[in-house]
Amino acid sequence: MNKTREERIRFALSISTDTKEFIMGRGVSTKAPEVFRKYFPGRTALILSDVHTHPALGARVNGLFDAAGIPLLEHIIMEEEFHAEWKYVELVDGLLDANPEAVLVSVGSGVINDLCKFSSHHHGQSYLTLPTAASVDGYSSFGASITYKGAKQTFSCPAPVAIVADIDVIAAAPAEMTAAGYADLAAKVPAGAEWMISDFVGTEPIHPEAWHVLQDYLDDFLADPEAVAAGDPDSIADVFEGLTLSGFAMQAARSSRPASCCDHLFSHILDMTAHRYKGKLQSHGFQVAIGTLTMCAVFDELFKLDLSGLDVDACVAAWPSLEEEQERALKIFEGFPAPRLGYEEITKKWQDRDEVRRQLTKLKVEWPSFKEKLRGQVYSYEKMHALLKASGAPCEPEQIGLTRQQLHDMFEKVQLMRYRYNVLDLAKRGGFYDTIVEPLFAPDGPFAL
Asked: Using CA of residue 53, residue 54, residue 60, residue 61, what is the dihedral sign?
């Protein structure tokens, strides 16, 4: 890393659109009352936590605010497990409706933070977040992932005005939560490669500051998974910093493009189908671990191809009409909790034959140099598998209760379920979709059926 942590955070704050202060260190939760008073003078603190995060930090925060003379209210979500579903948005909205003088203080991990983010946006104000685990990148991100009408959606809403991250608390979180955060951070590797593809074809150009704020340091943040698994506070601080910088990248880009692509869509499908393993919902990070590993394997297959010999005319002639793609999407998503999702998303991102010709011609001409750029970004399946295993994250689909056949069958939905251009879209245009997907499930493939 060629910048100190302080320099990296200073740069991140300089490109942020919403967050004005990010304090990270051991014992810094004691600073929460003064930070709250700085940004919300005279307001009441509505401290939101859950049955797990209240004893981890919420009760202490209550005491700190009370001692500081800040009026406070609290609400604890008592369910043992829950996701960011619309009914909880309505619950938090109701708390703010009943207490118009209140400002939310999020004490928890990803779900609590997303609920506070979205409800604060509904009420035209910001909030303060105190993370309790290095489990997700959403603490500092623009947007909240909420399940609405059966579909996992990212709703536009500003990030918190301030983040107070106590590493003593974060490092004491359950090891599986830290492993989930490590996996969510590792997802930025293939997601970055897919952003490079989108930039290459011209659909979503890379935002330079949003790219450099995290990608310049990502390899270093991921370099010591054994120490992360061992609970080393410094290594966990690196993971948390990486996740937070990812959120700042999303603020700068006003999009989740810097942080996710196909890797996250596997997770969205599992959330939308209420997938459980041994009776439990699986964490976002654990789901993303399998999506990340899968996409690294896809890139391994992509790099075996010589696309400089692509028959562009044949690809363009075979390219389906919008109506044909809409029909395909309706068939693939038939019986899914959001049956029109694929139809709606492919309608947004379908492109005509002239545009497909332009993209494939560029790909054919520039493939050797572009392939090397992608190789410099994405990890091989073997490398990613070793990192995830060492961190304590899942590295086989069965570890989250997913069969290999189920993983195989998710691909068609993944390609269609979001307007964001991805490597599978490129493969569909170039006629090599089966060539980079099916070998993953062949007898000698990483997910052999």
From this structure: positive
